[in-house]
Amino acid sequence: RLAGELADGWTTATKSPEVGRRYFRELHEGARIGGRELPAEFYPSFQTCACVLRPGESLESERVVNEVGSYVTTILHLSYEVWQSSGQKNEVVPPFFRNIWEDYLKRVASFSLPPEARFRQIHDGHSTFLQPEERRFVTAETIRGTCLAGEPDEIIAHIRTMEGVGFKGLNLLPSADYQRKVYRDFAEHIIPAFH
Predict the structure, then answer these.
(1) Which of 137, 157, 148, 189 is nearest to 47 (CA)?
(2) Residue 160 pLDDT level (bands cut at 50, 70, 90)
(3) Among 74, 81, 133, 179, which one is most buried in terms of CB atoms within 10 A?
(4) Of 82, 86, 66, nearest to 129 (Cα)?
(5) How many other C-beta atoms can be found within 10 angstroms of the C-beta atom of residue 61?
(6) Residue 114 and residue 105: Cα distance in Å, rounded?
């Protein structure tokens, strides 16, 4: 709402058209509160990670997990923070994390820092590298829920759906050690569809 009221643009960490539509309603409500229409040059973008699958490749292949793992766990960490600030209401946990949620809570409870300082351990590697102990949380379900991972036609169709929701841009946050490969695949297989 604040972005709709005051900003020139906005980005969000979702690839979900349903969530995006809800957020756009909030943006427009904020603009109404601010006494304005969203200007034509207002720039909304969504953030995710992408992995172009090879024919027959699984979402749980080592290459895919390496390329998207740090982003999946970044959203897991964010979801934990939202869960904590909600008073630990399980309904705020995204459905794609529910199968691993209890295991993740045990991990956080095992951290050496006290609760008020645990954010330093929770967010270690944030959108940069996958903590080895968290590799088990990067499953086909969590990848599907957080990333654009699929064959080129699937990724292109999803981006077009998000464009239809109102997004004008896409921010990719691949694991640092694999970003050149991710960007190259995206440039070769996805971007030409948008020229």
Answers:
(1) 148
(2) very high
(3) 74
(4) 66
(5) 14
(6) 14
